[in-house]
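Meet my pick.
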Amino acid sequence: MLPLIALVGRPNVGKSTLFNRIVGRRLAIVEDRPGVTRDRQYAEAEHDGIHFRAVDTGGFTARPGAREKDLGDTNLINAIRHQAERAIKEADAIIFVVDAMEGLAGAELELAQILRRGGKPVYLAANKVDSNPREASLELGELHATGFDVFPVSAEHGRGVSDLLDVVTKALPKPTEEPAEPVKIHLAVLGRPNVGKSTLLNKLLGEERFVASAVPGTTRDAVDEEVTWKGRRYVLTDTAGLRKKRQVIDRV
């Protein structure tokens, strides 16, 4: 089993962009607006000869209240938050992503407390620092006050990401040896929006792995999960709802 690095943070700070940068390919949908990522997205990656898994998560928000009404209904917000909390629990190390230009928000202060209590290695990625002059102009004292090591990075341009991974990967446990895996059968669940694809997959897996909501279009990324049934390995893929091309008006 490969060690796991979780990327967490509030919505729209660049977690998915950093995730894509780390794994070396565009797996997670990236859009400049909050709340795009909902489900946990896993992928294998390698840095300087060290192999690991990374997991992207939805934006961590404070418990739903007046401020979060624009992100959708309360159940959806709670489900996304639950997915982030699950990733934190199973991770071996955590990259806490913040927007260096905006500083810390209330949800991030709550998240920092949760991460400190967790006792796992946490590294704070101060994202959107695109140049040396910008880094020199920023006051990062507030970020250092969290007690985590701070790394100014630009996920979009790759600036500082290698330095961050140099440190994070050294804190990971060594992979455990596993027997050769049998051939996996890949199954994708398709259908139009809001017909119950994610709910069906959760029932097959026996856990709330995918965010299921009555809100049409909840699923955005194509997300995989492995399961063993009667001795055979399956990869189940949840997908976004299919629409006729002329009905698609949203980039995401």
In short: The chain has two domains: 4-170, 184-247.
